[in-house]
Amino acid sequence: MLTLLLLLSSGVRAISLSDFYPFGTEANDSVLPQGDDGSSSPISLSQRFTLFGKLYSVIHVNINGNISPGVPFTSSHLDEVSFPTISPYRLDVDTRGVDGGHIWYRQTTESILLDQALSHVQIVYPSVFSLDYLFIATWDHVGYFEMHTEQVHTNVVLYSRS
Ligand SMILES: [Ca+2]
Fold it and tell me: PANTHER family this protein is in (predicted)?
């Protein structure tokens, strides 16, 4: 069962891009089309997860810095959300500009990444001894409305443990 969220952001200067989980075409990520307030198609998870007591098997990665289980979130009015979201980077993101960045995501059970995530998780939860699944979403060099191109990175990992 998918259980927790891990967030890395280069906006916090202590984290460098080399600390991020691999992302992009080299990592075989899927990518969202460029846009302002769009969302991915439904992503069927190979591991279901619980959020606020409800079990989900489908999520959406949304341009505006969040992940929503079950339904897409495509509003730029971020205070209008009426359902649970995971919002690591909640901003009016806009990737339409030249060099407006990309939003990547994938599911993985690659052992080297599971080990990397486990080392991070054990900093806070030392009793966790293994992980078996990761969902990685990355807001890579994304800009903000309206087609501004600030260079912000956020790398988000949802993980499950056995
Ligand atoms: Ca937006």
Answer: MUCIN 4-RELATED, SUSHI DOMAIN-CONTAINING PROTEIN 2
Q: What is residue 111's three-state secondary structure? A: helix
pLDDT number for residue 8:
62
Tokens found for residue 123: 């900093």
Indicate left, alpha or beta for 97 from its phi (over 0: left) and psi (-120 to 50: alpha).
beta
User: How far, in Å, from the CA of 27 to the mean position of ligand 1?
Assistant: 25
Q: How far is the CA of 2 from the centre of ligand 1 (A)?
A: 27
Report the alpha-carbon distance of residue 45 to residue 144 in Å, rounded.
28
Cα(96) to ligand 1 centroid in Å equals 9
Total length of the chain: 162
Going from the Cα of 63 to the center of ligand 1, the distance in angstroms, rounded, reads 6
How many angstroms is it from 80 CA to the middle of ligand 1?
14
pLDDT tens, position by position, 45-92:
998 888 888 889 999 999 998 999 999 988 877 777 788 888 877 788
Total Cβ atoms within 10 A of residue 156: 24
CB atoms within 10 A of CB 126: 8
Q: Is residue 138 scored above 80 in pLDDT?
A: yes
Q: Ligand 1: distance of its center to the CA of 41 in Å?
A: 17
How far is the centre of ligand 1, averaged over its atoms, from the C-alpha of 136 (Å)? 20
